[in-house]
Design brief:
Order of helices and strands: EHEEHEEEHEEEHHE
CATH class of the largest domain: Alpha Beta
Structural class: alpha+beta
Largest sheet: 10 strands, mixed
Helix content: 10-25%
Distance between the termini: 35 Å
Number of helices: 5
Number of strands: 10
Number of domains: 2
Radius of gyration: 19 Å
């Protein structure tokens, strides 16, 4: 049967989601834990491959198994074999046609940014930081130039393996809450480093180094070298994955992310 899991993790101690020869990926930890409960070798497939240092408030993964276990075994049992920074939140048996990656119709990320003259200590590795005052209104104006279906080559990492740079950005919103900026993005898919590259440019606008219209110019130019540097991974969270309604899966989790 096919089992789907919803999990969360702190990415600070991992080399990203994807399995690596040295076993440092979140996938490595999850596969080992699920295999221990199933009593057989398990391979898991996730909705998105988060980068080194990127976190997930909601990651969805599926696997196939012949083991018959209660749902609590796939949650509490698996969690007993996971590092403290990774936790399965729910488990479901699901149709064999479901695929965590290819069935997803929308994904969303939130970037949590501290906008304060002094760097954080307590939340180091969990949030981004920029010391100069940022104008959230100007950043939102810039973000409007990104909405819709576009070629996002200007915000694509050199090593990106996506077949096409064309994505439909459905939400780009920046909200100030005290010293924090909550930056939410939703799209039919994302390119490698896309959100972190968008954040780099939005911060340039928010700091007054560029006008909001510059964002549209960068987008249309399709030249990564003209955009801002890739921003820090620390404040980035995978928070939202949407599937067709008949799968009846939770879509979002922003539990402690100032929701």
């Amino acid at each position: 049967m096919r089992i789907v899991l919803g999990l969360e993790y702190c990415g600070a101690g991992f080399c990203g989601w994807q399995s690596q020869p040295q076993g440092c990926g979140v996938q490595d930890a999850l596969e080992a834990a699920v295999s221990a409960i199933a009593g057989e070798r398990i391979v898991v497939t996730a909705a998105g491959r988060t980068d080194t240092g990127v976190h997930a408030a909601l990651q969805v993964a599926h696997f196939d198994t012949s083991a018959q276990r209660p749902h609590t075994a796939w949650v509490r049992g698996v969690n007993s074999h996971l590092p403290a920074s990774v936790a399965v939140q729910w488990a479901r048996e699901i149709d064999g046609n479901f695929h965590a990656r290819f069935a997803a119709t929308e994904r969303g990320y939130r970037y949590v940014l501290l906008n304060h003259p002094v760097r954080p200590g307590l939340s180091h590795g969990l949030i981004g930081w920029h010391h100069r005052p940022l104008d959230a209104d100007a950043m939102n104006q810039a973000a409007t130039h990104l909405l819709g279906r576009h070629d996002f080559s200007a915000f694509r990492a050199a090593g990106c393996q996506a077949r096409s740079p064309v994505k439909e950005l459905r939400l780009a919103r920046i909200e100030r809450r005290g010293d924090y900026l909550l930056c939410d993005f939703r799209a039919d898919g994302f390119l490698h480093h896309m959100v972190r590259n968008l954040m780099g440019c939005l911060i340039q606008v928010g700091a007054g180094s560029q006008p909001p219209e510059w964002m549209g110019e960068i987008l249309r130019g399709r030249d990564r070298t003209l955009a801002a540097p890739t921003f820090d991974a620390a404040g980035l969270y995978l928070t939202h994955i949407r599937y067709p309604a008949h799968f009846a899966l939770p879509e979002s989790s922003e539990r402690w992310l100032f929701a």
